[in-house]
Amino acid sequence: MKRKLIAIDLDGTTLNDHSEISSRTKKTLTRLQNDGHIVSIVTGRPFRNSYYYYDQLKLDTPIVNFNGAWCHNPSQKLWKYGYHKTLSKDLALSMLSLKDNPEVQLIAAESRSSIYIEGEYIPYPDFFPDGIHMSKQLRPEILLEDPTSIGVFTSTSQYQPAIEQKIIDIYKDSVEVRMWGGKTPCLEVVAAGVQKAMGIERIASYYNLNREDILAFGDQENDFEMIQYAGHGVVMSNGTERLKSISNDITIKNNHEDGLANYLESYFKL
């Protein structure tokens, strides 16, 4: 089969409900890499808590973090084909006002190498892989760089539409708001125009692959443009109905049942 770019989301897609890559999924993705296909992670997560999945899969390909805001290649520090889109630090600091909402548990401004927080909420076990003590406070005297994204976490998803609308009302067209995180959803704010399709377009161009040579897998609203852009966009059976409505196909099994591996084994006749 002609070489393909296989773009994989992490939470709710490649990872099971315990935030793990199963042995079957690892074996399948390794087999496809050995067969000459390109496997790239495209995630809403920052690199600081997605690098171990990159290492576990023994990838040497570009990765897309922050829902498309940062495309880079960890295996080539001088890779010249990547990009990095940021927000202004003033905008990030102004979002501290959202903490006045009792539903907002954590505001986290992320850069490529640091995280600045307001709140002590831990969204999921590996959100602070090196411990919450390694984070910095989100304060004017401490945040001296333009962040890549700002994550707004609520205790439950029921409050998210209202918080999302408030962000849109305040910042209008200057930002994009994306939801990700599976069972611990996050409203992530990135620069206007940023979405995952930017990343897979850049990676496909680097490898001289056309859109029809891209397989993309996702489950949440932040995967919408990626699924739509890919020549073959596949949504997990546990994905949202809106995402399924624009997909080319839907997996038979969910993310906790090796749905990604099962689909790839059938598609590539492994």
Strand tally is 14
Globally, the shape reads globular
Q: How would a crystallographer describe the biggest sheet?
A: 6 strands, mixed
Question: Main sheet: which strands, in order across?
Answer: 8-7-6-9-11-10
Query: How far apart, in Å, are the first and last alpha carbons?
Result: 11 Å
Strand percentage lies at 15-25%
Number of helices: 9
Structural class: alpha/beta
What is the C-alpha radius of gyration, as a whole number of Å? Answer: 18 Å
Q: Fraction of residues in helices?
A: 25-40%
Summary of the model, kept short:
The chain has helices spanning 10-14, 23-34, 51-56, 89-94, 160-171, 196-206, 224-229, 241-244, 259-267, and strands spanning 5-8, 38-41, 63-65, 70-72, 83-84, 104-110, 115-118, 136-137, 149-154, 175-180, 186-191, 214-218, 232-235, 249-250.
